[in-house]
Specification:
mainly alpha, Growth Hormone, Chain: A, 2 domains, two-stranded antiparallel sheet, 16 helices, 2 strands, globular, MFS, Sugar phosphate permease
């Protein structure tokens, strides 16, 4: 049996490796944004055609999460993450040989989408669920912040490489970075604390449960079927869909053109949006710390309500310059950007037990669908009305609705699981 001889619990080493993988995944997924114009200039493809690859990437990023979490249960975390990194490396590296737009969709859309989706927030839920009891919320916040850190680390470097050496240099850099992480994952990323003869941080040693001989797809779909029978799943998925709509879908996609409508330079608007990512790191880590101390339902209710209020105020803040009120909004909104993730992961674990990571993968998929719907809807509002104003108001109202959905999780009590290892159903509380 493994004897722990140091004061540093191995869970922290696992978390560090997971953080590195998550930082890389975020940077890999965001790379097409710096390659859009160079690809258009070289191949003559329309921006719509190139954006189709990005759309496929985003869709698979969300849909892969529950199946990746199921694969981690079936084959282990280490194997899945190593395979994901190889997929990313192949998808990025092979682009230097492409000649037609369908190859871009296949490589950046499908391969990189599948690879980065396997290292999405379902991966976070699996790591924290297996390796941490103490500090679980805090670690969830830190790992989630890795996504924002990835954008901040990779995008300036890749943009500079693209400008000075062309987009192929950026693509090959992503390939090299992904492959460099593979040996680190093999060395330090373990599937379960029991492999080392120890328990999770803050918990007791437990033998890992035997893995049922069933495919990952069956695990993921069965988890969805069982979870969908419960009220908490729909409340969490509904709230997280609104989370995606009010972040990536609306602000992430339309903030820059909306600011430009009011005379603000695009470079200034882009800088403000980058600040959101910076404050997001602080806000997500703080949210993880709070999740260890405050009921997650209260946190979600508060986060969504404050987000809704800020979006309702936003239309009055747009101007030709970045005045202090707008900067204050960016600071506040950045702190709240993905602060919802740690409490949502915690609640999935609370309600759905050992299948919490897989169920969270489905909840995360709803986030991506909400983002896609909002991106399209806001564009239609702008086209039809000539301004984004009602898009912001609508998003603010939706965020308040998400707050109510989160607080509705209090209206019930947990009863016995509806299936082995999953589905803590909720029935109305008695008067």
């Amino acid at each position: 049996m493994y004897v722990l001889k140091t004061r540093i619990h191995p869970a922290w080493f696992v978390a560090v490796v997971a953080f590195v993988a998550l930082v890389g995944a975020a940077g890999f997924r965001a790379t097409p944004s710096v390659m859009l114009r160079p690809l258009h200039d070289e191949f003559g493809w329309s921006l719509g055609t190139i954006s189709a690859a990005v759309s496929v990437n985003l869709l698979l990023y969300g849909l892969t999460a529950p199946f990746a979490a199921a694969l981690m249960e079936r084959f282990g975390i280490r194997r899945v993450i190593m395979a994901a990194l190889v997929l990313v490396a192949a998808g990025s590296g092979l682009t230097v040989f492409m000649r037609t737009s369908w190859q871009l969709v296949l490589l950046w859309g499908v391969l990189v989408g599948l690879g980065t989706g396997s290292m999405a927030l379902g991966f976070v839920a699996t790591i924290t669920g297996r390796w941490f009891v103490k500090h679980r919320g805090l670690v969830t916040g830190i790992l989630t912040a890795g996504g924002a850190a990835g954008n901040l680390v990779f995008l300036p470097v890749l943009a500079s490489l693209t400008e000075s050496h062309g987009w192929r240099a950026a693509a090959l850099t992503v390939t090299g970075a992904a492959l460099l992480v593979v040996p680190l994952v093999w060395w330090r990323l373990r599937d379960h604390p029991a492999e080392l003869g120890i328990g999770p941080l803050g918990g007791e040693y437990q033998e890992p449960k035997p893995i049922a001989p069933q495919g990952a797809a069956r695990i993921a779909l069965r988890s969805l079927r069982d979870a969908a029978r419960t009220r908490p799943f729909w409340l969490l998925a509904g709230g997280f869909a609104i989370c995606g709509a009010t972040t990536n879908g609306l602000v992430g996609t339309h903030f820059i053109p909306a600011a430009h409508d009011h005379g603000m330079a695009e470079t200034t608007a882009a800088s403000l949006l980058a600040l959101v990512g910076l404050f997001d790191i602080v806000g997500t880590i703080l949210s993880g710390w709070l999740t260890d101390r405050v009921d997650s339902r209260i946190l979600l209710g508060g986060y969504y309500f404050l987000r809704g209020m800020s979006l309702l105020v936003l239309p009055s803040l747009f101007a030709a310059t970045a005045h202090p009120s707008m900067v204050l909004f960016i600071l506040f909104y950045g702190l709240d950007w993905v602060a919802t993730v740690p409490p949502t992961v915690t609640l999935c674990r609370e309600y759905f037990g050992d299948r919490g990571a897989v169920v969270f993968g489905w909840v995360f998929a709803s986030h991506q669908f909400g983002a896609a719907a909002a991106a399209t809807a806001a564009g239609l509002v702008r086209d039809q009305l000539g301004a984004y104003t009602w898009a912001w108001y609508g998003a603010g109202a939706l965020a308040v609705l998400a707050s109510l959905l989160s607080l509705m999780l209090f209206a019930g009590k947990r009863i016995k699981p509806i299936a082995p290892g999953i589905g803590l159903a909720v029935e109305p509380a008695k008067a």
